[in-house]
Amino acid sequence: MTQVSPNQDPFRAIADPNRRRMLDLMLGQERTVGFLADDLGIAQPSVSQHMQVLRLAGLVDARSEGRRTFYSVRPAELRGVAEWIAKYEAFWTGRLDALENHLSRMKSKGTRAK
């Protein structure tokens, strides 16, 4: 079994709500630390630390241009997270479908009894 460093674990990286928001903001286009800090209302050093976690987890790419660094999401790296979540989505969809069927049967029985 391959060991993943806590710094490389995408699940740990996306556990923080600020990092999830950063990923959302970068999904459509590259963003700088300054942009992310302004949008989130947190200090640039904090954003830089969050970006380091996301980079170590392989969830973002960084591209330097002069003194600025532009960050972008690597959506393919989130595939493992999406696949893991999909199992639970399928489970709950099945459970909710079963509940809906049960309630429909109960309603039908109640209608016939009148």
Instruction: State the major sheet.
Output: 3 strands, antiparallel
The CATH class of the largest domain is identified as: Mainly Alpha
Write the H/E string, N to C. HHEHHEEH
As laid out across the biggest beta sheet, the strand order is 1-3-2
Rg over C-alpha atoms, rounded to the nearest angstrom: 21 Å
Shape: elongated
Tally of domains: 2
Number of β-strand runs: 3
Q: What is the fold named in CATH at topology level of the largest domain? A: Arc Repressor Mutant, subunit A
CATH architecture of the largest domain: Orthogonal Bundle
Q: How much of the residues is beta strand, in percent?
A: 5-15%
Structure annotation, total helices? 5
Write the layout of secondary structure elements.
Layout: H1 10-13, H2 17-26, E1 31-32, H3 33-40, H4 44-56, E2 60-65, E3 68-73, H5 79-113
Antiparallel strand pairs: 1-3, 2-3
Structure characterization notes:
The protein has 114 residues and is an alpha+beta fold. It is built from five helices and three strands, in the order H-H-E-H-H-E-E-H. The chain has two domains: 10-73, Winged helix-like DNA-binding domain superfamily/Winged helix DNA-binding domain (Arc Repressor Mutant, subunit A); 75-114. Helix 3 crosses helix 4. It has helices spanning 10-13, 17-26, 33-40, 44-56, 79-113, and strands spanning 31-32, 60-65, 68-73. It has a three-stranded antiparallel sheet with strand order 1-3-2. The longest helix has 35 residues, at 79-113. The model has no long low-confidence stretch (mean pLDDT 87). A hairpin with a 2-residue loop joins strand 2 and strand 3 (68-73). 16% of the residues are buried.
